[in-house]
Design a protein that fits this description.
single chain; alpha+beta; three-stranded antiparallel β-sheet; 3 helices; 24% helix; globular
Length: 161
């Protein structure tokens, strides 16, 4: 079980998200894959698929994909927010999202809840999107300010899926 917020953003909106996250401090941007059993932060949100608090990096669990010879973040067991930026296809803005899991079932089948500090931090980030972006007409996602201006100016349209 998890929480998520869907959004439509352009590059300028992503840069604004990065600035907001960095101003809050204690944030690390993490890549989709790692070639080693230790994950290393990347410099920008544009290079990231995961967001973590710096103090949680050591708790990020990686699982090895032998057929591809790399490591992936185990989202269920790790204190991370998944960042799917969406994108552009021609003049259509494709929906992205932030998503995080509240906990996971351990090997014995018991529910393990993630730390309250992580959940509060992640919830604050999702709420920031809801407070600073415009809710799209179907109510399923939010639109970043630059994406919203592009839609209103007729430059872009939203891909509603």
């Amino acid at each position: 079980m998890g929480r998520q917020v869907n959004f439509y953003i352009l590059q300028a909106d992503r840069e604004e998200l990065q600035t907001m996250l960095q101003k809050r401090g204690n944030v690390a941007f993490l890549p989709w894959i790692s070639t080693t059993a230790t994950i290393r932060p990347v410099p920008t949100l544009a290079d990231a698929n995961w967001i973590s608090r710096n103090i949680d990096i050591a708790s990020v669990v990686l699982k090895y994909v032998q057929s591809q010879s790399h490591w992936l973040v185990d989202e269920a067991r790790s204190p991370v927010i998944k960042f799917s930026p969406g994108g552009l296809s021609g003049s259509e803005i494709i929906r992205g999202r932030f998503h995080f899991e509240l906990g996971f079932y351990d090997a014995d089948g018991y529910w393990v809840t993630k730390s309250p500090e992580f959940v509060q931090w992640a919830d604050r980030i999702l709420r920031w999107v809801c407070r600073h972006y415009v809710k799209e007409s179907h109510g399923l996602a939010y639109i970043g300010p630059y994406a919203d201006k592009g839609v209103k100016d007729g430059v872009y349209r939203l891909r509603i899926i």
